[in-house]
Write a structure and sequence with these properties.
Length: about 180
């Protein structure tokens, strides 16, 4: 195979690292959403994480989801409206685990690839983590607007790979 043909089938870096994030997500035992994240400095992979219960604690498949309902006030066309959100509080999010198990020095100036757009809590944590870029695939509409504003305010590049196709063996259909 000549060099031109090899380059035509070779994955770009965004696809390569997002593929890895999706493969990492297959370790999750969350029945609602499998999320994977990877930390990258330049072209070097520094860490991976997925969502799940704390180590040594029963996960959602074993003990069931711990759903907490939150209410949030949003302005829609100048009118305040209440929105209900349900979140599983048994699970530590992939981004949180990534931050727990990587060093601050490694995160400075790095990029996080995550299968799903970070929620508000994870976005806050990423904003203080030293990363300069967050790349995600699936949107998370519940927190999207305020997360985008936060990333812009912090000067963190925030990109959606909306044309990305996850590896077939790692794909999970999720409801928003």
């Amino acid at each position: 195979m000549n060099t031109e043909t090899q380059d035509a089938v070779r994955k770009d870096w965004d696809t390569y690292f997002m593929d890895i994030a999706y493969m990492v997500s297959t370790r999750s035992r969350c029945p609602r959403r499998h999320v994977g994240s990877v930390l990258v400095q330049g072209k070097k992979l520094l860490g991976t994480a997925y969502n799940g219960a704390p180590m040594g604690v029963q996960d959602c498949l074993e003990a069931g989801c711990m759903i907490a309902e939150e209410v949030e006030m949003k302005l829609v066309d100048g009118i305040e409206q209440l929105f209900k959100k349900q979140r599983c509080i048994r699970t530590i999010h992939a981004e949180q685990n990534l931050l727990l198990f990587t060093d601050r020095a490694d995160r400075e100036g790095s990029t996080v690839y995550v299968t799903d757009q970070p929620c508000w809590t994870c976005a806050n944590m990423l904003a203080n983590s030293g990363v300069v870029e967050v790349v995600y695939h699936r949107s998370y509409p519940k927190d999207s607007e305020k997360v985008i504003r936060l990333m812009k305010q912090k000067g963190i590049q925030f990109r959606c790979l909306d044309q990305f196709e996850p590896p077939a063996q790692a794909y999970m259909d999720v409801t928003t």
